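Notes from the pairing session

We agreed to fold both candidates in a single pass and log them together. This is the raw record for the first candidate, unedited. Please don't reformat it; downstream parsing expects exactly this layout.

Candidate A
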Amino acid sequence: MPVPAIMPLLATAGVGWLYYRRIRRQLGRQVYRPQRAALRIALLSLLACGLLVVGGSAHRLLPALAIGGLAGAALGWLALRHMRVWVVDGVRRYVSNPWIGGVVTLLLAARLAWRAYRFEVPAAGTQPLMASPLTYGLVVLLVAYYLVSGIGLVRRMRAF
């Protein structure tokens, strides 16, 4: 069955909306929700395990796995150092550094836009979707960043 011509546009608009929501959540004061934070950490941990398995089985992705993981962990640690946490009327709140999160998000968005511009969509049955080491490394960087900053946020909030 042929795909309607509007489907790529709808998919791009959907991804753009998700990025807009993600960036908007990084700006301003946030209310800390422990259940949401725990769920996010659990899902990111599962994703990280999957990325480790894929990166470990494909030898050409090992450098991207290592560099992306270390860079993401370092950026997550840096974001924690610049995160402000406080309690107002018994409600725990935090403000993350919008510059660090924004740069990480824009890196991945720029890479995905470049792939779309170059039309690097693999043909059916020829390559896996994450065949590019650069894209793989950026995804690993993003997951490591959110995992480290999420775990650090939970630890800081327990102190309050």
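Candidate B (folded immediately after A)
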Amino acid sequence: MNAPFLYDYLMKLQHYLSWQREKIIKLEKKIAKLENELMDIRKRPQTTIEKIEYKFDQLKVETLEGTLNIGLTPSGAETIEDFAVSPEKVIIPQPQPIMFRNIQTKVNDYLTNECKDILKNIEERYSHQLDDTYRQFILQDIGRQVDERIRFYIQQKMNNGQIPASDSSKELEDEICEKVKRDIEQSLELFIKHLPKEG
């Protein structure tokens, strides 16, 4: 695992979260201002709107395509790199879907059932207390990158001739699963370790 790229990813995530926090504060101020304006409007005499017409003569939507990035910077802006850091996209050959799905199921189960406690232990170790929303954001962000990391390790084994095209070895599945889990734990630890101290 390439530590400098992982560190860059974690720092970008921290910067994004700081930016998001500032944005929330600004939005809260705007909401307070709008509430005051609404109170002023309610005090004024009311006017009645008789009729509103909308015309959509030329509107035609056949398909809706694209990507919705919630919690990440928009396309074209600086993006957060994968914690998996691999310079090229790795495509797994078709004969391995069973192995991929088996590993994916195990890793997703690990993320759902064990990672929250692991993250809390790391927080205690580095004296950082995160709220549940922040924890969920971090785990969801890592969860979106797990599939590519699994493909990376399977491709690595295939390139080394360790996975025959028709094989879905339990030992190899467990080995790759453990590597992905270790990557996740290292990512969480590095991220928490480099969070700025409050106050």
